Automatic annotation (TrEMBL):
This is Metallophosphoesterase. Keywords: Hydrolase, Iron, Metal-binding. Belongs to the cyclic nucleotide phosphodiesterase class-III family. InterPro entries: Calcineurin-like_PHP, CNP_phosphodiesterase-III, Metallo-depent_PP-like. Residues 1-199 form the Calcineurin-like phosphoesterase domain. One of its GO terms (molecular function) is hydrolase activity. It holds the Pfam family Metallophos. It comes from the Bacteria. The keyword Coiled coil does not apply. The keyword Nucleus does not apply.
Length: 266
């Protein structure tokens, strides 16, 4: 089974017109659907994609229509390929529920469990709009505990938005990491997938293969004295899963060379 992992699309139909700051950087960026379409087409020409996982920040503070448009675009681009998503700190839950599903706007988290013959995927929402580092409540953790127990007979692939290792980024790791790791420890977790940092990273965490995928929009590079250089850069991970275990992993990172802005982030 081939699983494509992407993250941090930060899509908007139209980015706010601005000259300065973070919004000014976004205003200089091309639609992330342009490179996404290109790389999806390249992948589909040479391999079969069985599942696509998107680990959060689907939009950049998106409106209801942004979510509706993005879902329709992805469904058309992916055809019959199944898609699993989680939300990130730039996703507004009320707009997601209304636009992605056509349901009543709600602040409730979006969790997803998909069972396959040889493993299950649990997508766990550890994000909250306006909290850059992520946050969850006791109800969310209780949901995860119950689902892990329900699916304990199968290997599990876990998906979150926020990263769990402090050494991988200058951005703080998710504050709930230790509680999360203690919760999953008794179960057969085959890998953990996430995004958020916009940089590829691969390691193990408590013996579990751990993958952070690059973004499908932009990346920030620290250049010293509080300055961050933002540039368009795109990437994805491709995993081959056999009998519930990742047997092969490929990472592609595409460097456009297009610098958007250098900002003082102090």
């Amino acid at each position: 089974m081939n699983i494509l992992h992407i993250s941090d699309i930060h899509f908007r139909r139209e980015y706010e017109t601005s000259e300065g700051g973070y919004k000014g950087m976004l205003a200089k960026m091309q639609s992330p659907l342009i490179p996404l379409e290109k790389y999806l087409h390249q992948l589909q020409q040479r391999t079969t994609l069985d599942l696509v996982i998107i680990s959060g920040d689907l939009t950049e503070d998106g409106e209801v229509e942004d979510y509706r448009y993005l879902k329709n675009w992805l469904q058309e681009a992916l055809g019959e390929t199944e898609m699993i998503v989680t939300l990130g700190n730039h996703d507004i839950k009320e707009n997601f529920w209304a636009g992605w599903f056509g349901e009543k706007a709600s602040e409730k988290p979006y969790n997803q469990v998909v069972m396959y013959p040889e493993f299950s995927v649990i997508s766990f929402d550890n994000s909250s709009y306006g909290y850059a580092d992520g946050i969850v409540d006791e109800q969310q953790l209780q949901w995860l505990a119950e689902v892990l127990e329900e699916y304990k007979e199968q290997p599990i692939i876990l998906v979150t938005h926020h990263h769990l290792l402090s050494q991988q980024s200058n951005m703080p790791k998710w504050p709930g990491t230790e509680r999360f790791l203690a919760l999953i420890e008794p179960y057969d977790i085959r890998c953990i997938l996430n995004g958020h940092t916009h940089h590829f990273f691969m390691d193990e965490i408590n013996g579990i293969p751990y993958f952070t995928v690059a973004s499908m929009s932009f990346v920030g590079e620290n250049v010293g004295d509080g300055l961050v250089r933002f540039e368009e850069r795109y990437g994805y991970n491709l995993y081959c899963v056999e009998q519930g275990r990742i047997t092969h992993q490929t990472t592609e990172n595409f460097i456009s060379g297009h610098v958007l802005k250098t900002l003082d982030m102090r």
